[in-house]
Amino acid sequence: FKPVYNLSSSKLTAIIATFLASGLFHEFLLIACFPPHLDFAPALGKNTAFMMWNAAIIILEALIGKARIFSWIKNNLPQPVVTTLVICTAMPIAHWFLHPYTKSDIFAVHGEVAMP
Questions:
Q1: Tens digit of pLDDT for each residue in 103-115?
Q2: Which of 6, 30, 57, 78 is deepest in the core (most CB within 10 A)?
Q3: Which of 9, 72, 65 has its CA nearest to residue 81?
């Protein structure tokens, strides 16, 4: 975030660039973890879409996060409830990010090295 923000002085540009880079990096990880010769081929593009969704949430926070309702929530609700509400912003599309890892045997195969 900071390098892009220092170059552009735009919070919006820095947020989008950061989450786009993260999405593309995770797409690269999928390609590296699931080479074509394996039985499982993940759908590419979903990690980047997930990251861009989160960028949109952060941008919304910057635009409307100071509204009275959010201040009330922050000051009156217990921290675990606030944390749960924040996590719920990503839950509807979390499967875009997690599906390749949960539907493949990557943890079963590679986890055996650390947890025989």
A1: 776 666 655 555 4
A2: 30
A3: 72
pLDDT digits (tens, 9 = 90+) for 7-47: 888 889 999 999 999 999 999 988 887 777 667 778 889 99
Q: Is 19 exposed, middle or buried (0-12, 13-18, 19+ CB in 10 A)?
A: buried
Q: How many CA atoms lie within 13 A of 26 on its CB side?
A: 22
> If DSSP states are collapsed to H, E and C, what string results for 72-95?
HHHHHCCHHHHHHHHHHCCHHHHH
* Closest by Cα among 50, 43, 48 to 103: 43
Look up residue 9 and give its two tokens.
């002085």
Query: pTM of the predicted model, to two decimals?
Result: 0.78
Burial class (CB in 10 A: 0-12, 13-18, 19+), 50: buried
